[in-house]
Amino acid sequence: MIMKLKKIVDSLERFVVSKSGSERKIKYLRRQGVKIGERCFVQSIFISNEHFLVEMGNHVAIANGVRFITHDGSASWLFREELDAGIFGKISIGNDVFIGMSSILLPNTTIGNNCIVGAGSVVRGKFPDNSVIMGNPAKVVLKMSAQKLLYKVSPGLCKTLDLNLPDTIALLKEKFSIE
User: Fold this and answer.
1) Theoretical Cys-Cys bridge with 95: which of 4, 9, 57, 139, CB 3.0 to 4.6 Å?
2) What does the pLDDT read at residue 74?
3) Is 6 left (phi over 0), alpha (psi -120 to 50) or beta?
């Protein structure tokens, strides 16, 4: 009875945290064993059971829907008699990294410093510093210096960082000719 009640409380806490802001998500994940550096922004708490196998450096942004998978369940499911074991791996994220919406990070993944992972990418392996990573399977598609140049010349570049929401909306409507 006590175990069932604990499961209900844990599920309720996870639900509340999933609907909360970044700071609360970070506190929750740290309590679960995830190593998270300073000045991070986290919108996803989807980490498989082995939270202690995930670490993030400083100034890391995790967009909504990102999933961290630290084990390969197919090995123990399909080869239970032969292997009698599970397959696990760490996920390490360097400093100054942005992980795009709905990406999946698989076991044994290391992302270097100063990287972008594009939305929806399926990431496994070791990726060097200063990389733009995207795709399924994910691969390095650009250096960060090239991505920065693309941002600077983008027709969608809008100076909104110091604006409040109403001013941002007004600027975007004007730029894109929306009444």
Assistant:
1) 57
2) 87
3) alpha
